[in-house]
Amino acid sequence: MTQEEHRLAVLGAGTMGVGIATLAIGYGVPVVLVDIDADRRAEAPDKVRQQLRMAQLMGGLRRDAQAGGLTVTDSLDAVAEATVVVESITERPEWKAKLMAEVTAVLPAGTPVLTNTSGIPVDELAGAAVRPEDVLGAHFMNPPYLIRAIEVVRGPRTAQASLDTALGLLTRLEREPVVVGDGPGFVINRVLQRMINEASRIVQDGIADPAAVDALFTGCLGHRTGPLATGDLIGLDNVVDSLQVLLDRTGDEGYRPSELLVDKVRAGDLGRKTGRGFHDYQGAQR
């Protein structure tokens, strides 16, 4: 397969799904974006156009690039001609497993299905697939068109051919894949989610406020953002879901979501996407 022949299907038109679609379209790869939610489908084309402009302004995409086409649908049958599929729905194991079974049933053998899960072991999801050897992980960071490195997770049953095809697409998109082994949280989230959780506990215990916690990480350790601002960017609901996955699969109490995190999710303060999380994004951002 030449690089120009790739066709991507993205399952889920949420924040990450739209971002991944934007990345591919910006590099001239046509995308089929699938979501069962009518409102998300209706909003997706405008969101992709907005993010394409933002990506170009911020240097994530070339201004003269030939954009790929976008098809938005609620039908899984539309992904049958994709060369690579990326699953990017809500971090619920039972939902992801059900979708994995459904999508692999309509795909030809040898079509890689990349799960963008934050922490569910790849082999766990592969067990629901018609062909486990076609399943692997691709943990994109947000926003995908600005962050080049991608954590690629090879499950114990992932075939070399499927891995090679997936890496070929990522190369076509000028990403920098780092291949790692399987396990709860892989590398990034096994460390990151616990750090966000511990930072939340520090605020909960009154040791420091969110601005102070993040200032120490940016000023002393050189992080681009601190752990709490990172949690706000991810979405605190997604953080809680990921922590619960890690807790269930490792039994490590360090992953039990802090009371403050749970309270913020219950209150609807989910981070940037709702205007407020640990920081306030409705007015002047701290």
Describe this protein's structure.
It is a single chain. This protein has 286 residues and is α/β, with parallel strands linked by helices. It folds into 2 domains: 3-180, NAD(P)-binding Rossmann-like Domain (Rossmann fold), CATH 3.40.50; 188-274, N-(1-d-carboxylethyl)-l-norvaline Dehydrogenase, domain 2. The protein has helices spanning 15-26, 38-57, 93-106, 122-126, 160-172, 188-204, 210-221, 227-234, 236-250, 259-267, and strands spanning 8-11, 31-34, 70-73, 84-87, 113-115, 135-139, 149-153, 176-180. An 8-stranded mixed sheet has the order 3-2-1-4-5-6-7-8, sandwiched between helices. Strand 1, helix 1 (15-26) and strand 2 form a beta-alpha-beta unit. It is globular. Belongs to the 3-hydroxyacyl-CoA dehydrogenase family.
Helix share bin: 40-55%
Residues in β-strands, percent: 5-15%
Radius of gyration: 19 Å
Order of helices and strands: EHEHEEHEHEEHEHHHHH
The CATH superfamily of the largest domain turns out to be NAD(P)-binding Rossmann-like Domain
Distance N to C terminus = 48 Å
- CATH classification, class level of the largest domain: Alpha Beta
Please outline the major beta sheet: 8 strands, mixed
The figure for the number of domains is: 2
Oligomer: single chain
| CATH architecture name of the largest domain | 3-Layer(aba) Sandwich
How many E-type strands? 8
Globular, elongated, flat, extended or rod-shaped: what is the shape?
Answer: globular
Q: Looking across the biggest beta sheet, what order are the strands in? A: 3-2-1-4-5-6-7-8
Which runs of at least 5 residues are low in confidence (pLDDT < 50)?
A: none
Tally of separate helices = 10
* Mean pLDDT metric: 94
CATH fold assignment of the largest domain: Rossmann fold
Structural class: alpha/beta
